[in-house]
Amino acid sequence: MSIFEEVMHEGEMVFFIEGGPLGEEGTYIVVSDDPTAEERISKIIEKLNTSSVIFLAMDEYERFKSELEKKAKRVW
User: Fold this and answer.
1) Alpha-carbon distance 16 to 73, whole Å?
2) Which phi and psi (to 5°) does residue 48 adopt?
């Protein structure tokens, strides 16, 4: 079971980019138009081994889609 299964809604996406500026495992990028996404992710952030989380709305995702899909792995 994915750690995101308990907090993400249908249609939302999560990407992961390895490595981080503060020695973290990496950066998670959450794509959602739901204003509660940040609150829901905050419930599992300790389990992610990172403090680097970026939230994008769907329209922002569409602008960066090709770049994001090249550099990041989709995990949800």
Assistant:
1) 5
2) -85, -10
pLDDT band at 26 (very low <50, low <70, confident <90, very high): confident
Q: What is the pTM of this model?
A: 0.85
The values of phi and psi at residue 67, to 5°, are -65, -45
Q: Is the dihedral of CA 45, 5, 31, 75 positive or negative?
A: positive
Which H or E run includes 59? helix 58-71
The model's pLDDT over 35-58, given as tens digits with 9 standing for 90+, comes to 999 999 988 887 877 778 999 999
Tokens coding 16: 């992961």
Residue with tokens 């809604």: 9
Q: Which amino acid is at 7?
A: V
- Give the single-character DSSP code of 5: T
| CA-based torsion, 54, 59, 61, 63: positive or negative | negative
